[in-house]
Amino acid sequence: MTEQKKPTFRREGGNRDQKSRNGGYQKKDGERKPYSRNGEKDGTKRTSFQRTGERRANGGFQRGDARTGGKRPMGNRPAGNRPEADNTPNTTPARRLALEVLSDVHQNGAFANLSLNEKLQAARQLKPEDRRLATQLVYGVLENQIRIDHALKGFLAHQVKEPAQLDILRMGAYQILFLDRVPDSAAVNEAVKLTRAMGMDSSTGFVNAVLRNLARQKNELSWPAKEEDLRAYLHVMTSTPLWLVERLIADYGAEEAEKILSHRNAAPSVTVRPNLHISSDEELIRSLDAKEIKWNRGIAPHAFLLEGISELTYDQDYRNGKYSVQGQSSMLAAEAIQAKPGMRILDACAAPGGKSAYLCETMQMTGRVFAWELHEKRAMLLDAVKRRLHLENLRVAVRDATQPMLDWESTLDAVLLDAPCSGTGVITDKPDIKQRLKAEDIPAIVETQKQLLDTLCTYVKVGGTLVYSTCSILPEENSQQVAAFLERHPNFALETLPVSFPESLRKQQGDYGLQLQAYRDGVEGFFIARLRRMR
Questions:
Q1: H/E element holding 464?
Q2: In sequence order, what are the residues at sequence separation of 6 or more whose Cβ sits closer than 8 angstroms to the Cβ of residue 216?
Q3: pLDDT one-digit tens code per residue, 162-193
Q4: What are residue 306's DSSP bridge partners?
Q5: Nearest-angstrom CA–CA distance, 332 and 528
């Protein structure tokens, strides 16, 4: 680990990525275009490296000062600790952009990261600080929405029927309750100006009254008591749907469920790794040091966590394919294959391509990696990765992996199935999952995973490897799914994870695989099972 002086790179708002293959919800992995399932960023053009401030709200039990990144326990703040003067710049354009994204999410079912990225690209006139504010408002509201609505409820004499008006109130309340750097008066005034700018002049008095009353009484707000009703407490204070709170308590017990739900990332970071074919950990370290980028070693092999960097896609070394941006859990799933030169491997749900690239590079561009993707637009992401990294042994195809291909039976050394899933392991990074995911969605997701496993396992040679992974923390998608698979396919057996995995993670492997938890392991919530075909 080394610490270097921070370079004076530009700072801009970030964006994110999701997974929507074969009926799934969210996925983080590999190269990201248009933005960054498990920690990669997009290929959006930027004019330089970009450093970011506080990427989003420190929701749940933490909140921070966006100027310093400092954090302190959530709860009622003492009066008199905030500036009285309205010394913030006129950021109505940033707030209007944030409102457009929230409306897109709430009214059209859009993915927040994609909508935000699209609108930030179009709003090139926005200053970097406005871009950061718009990003923070979007993710802050989505991450804390249930708690915000709970706070607003006491100041509303009637239900707000106009969706845009409700989102304006949420944005104002988020700033009042969570952001130290925005004075209450500024939050109220900007909400009123935004209401007027949206053509709702008759509602300006109402918005003003609600938010001013909230600002005056924020220290006296009533929250659910943990001792009286843990479910209600976690539901409101972590802004998690009640059905998911109840499911996690049933699956993990009250104590661990609280740890899972109240975890928030301490600080935004980007995870990178060297191109394993043309570079090395040592070469990447020299490059980062030369650029005065502060870094720490990750827990996954070859993983480096960069502090304060939001975008690297305009860096010449990145463009030349010397390194990739990829989440640690995604790296670990690919590492579980233990790819060797000359192998034939299938990455069945491959976009955006990080794991496919990892496999190609590990095999030193020999053999074949077949990368399948259900949707043509997502397959284009794979093509972009192939071109940037010069992956001569990668073969991309648009294909529904649930449909059997008889001529592929017993032809592959390994299959990696990073299956479509609920995305419950990455809710901290993708809080709009909490608005989108419903309890009734889970059975269909589980059924798709079953179909994929039953089809793809037939392609594995005797003695070959099948790795199953998800970015979920629900047992029915993970350990229970693997247990049921082994009952249906007794010719497969669970194997111990390879010695290249950190010993601390190998010790946590259960009877049916490894469940990673963000609060405990410092990586994305993820599940990995390594299976061997015995006969």
A1: strand 460-470
A2: none
A3: 999 999 999 999 999 999 888 999 999 999 99
A4: 270, 295
A5: 8
Strand 526-533 versus strand 514-516 pairing type = antiparallel
Dihedral angle sign, alpha carbons of residues 444, 445, 446, 448: positive
Query: Quick one: which of 25, 40, 21 has its CA closest to 303?
Result: 40
52-89: burial string, b at 16+ Cβ within 10 Å, e else? bbbbbbbbbbbbbebeeeebeebeeeeeeebeeeeebe
Retrieve residue 295's tokens. 């870094």
Question: How many other β-carbons are positioned within 10 Å of the β-carbon of residue 247?
Answer: 19
Integer CA distances (angstroms), 393 to 99, 270, 317, 342, 381, in order: 45, 27, 22, 10, 16
The two tokens of residue 417 are: 């199935």
Assigned token pair, 459: 């392609």
Match 């995604």 to its residue by tokens.
330
The angle subtended at Cα 226 by Cα 224 and Cα 229, nearest 5°, is: 75
Listing DSSP states for 198-261 in one string gives TT-GGGHHHHHHHHHHHHHHGGG-----TTT-HHHHHHHHTT--HHHHHHHHHHH-HHHHHHHH
CB 505 within 8 A of CB 476: no
Q: Which amino acid, residue 170?
A: R
At 446, the amino acid letter reads: V
What mean pLDDT comes out for the span 488-492? 98
Q: pLDDT tens digits, residue range 76-108?
A: 333 333 333 333 434 478 999 999 999 999 999
Q: How far apart are CA 172 and CA 235, in angstroms?
A: 21
Distance CA 333, CA 359 (A): 10
Q: What spatial distance separates the first Cα and last Cα of the chain, rounded to whole Å?
A: 45
Which residues are part of the catalytic machinery? Answer: 471
Whether the predicted pLDDT of 22 surpasses 50: no
- What number of residues does the chain have? 535
- The SS3 of residue 331 is helix
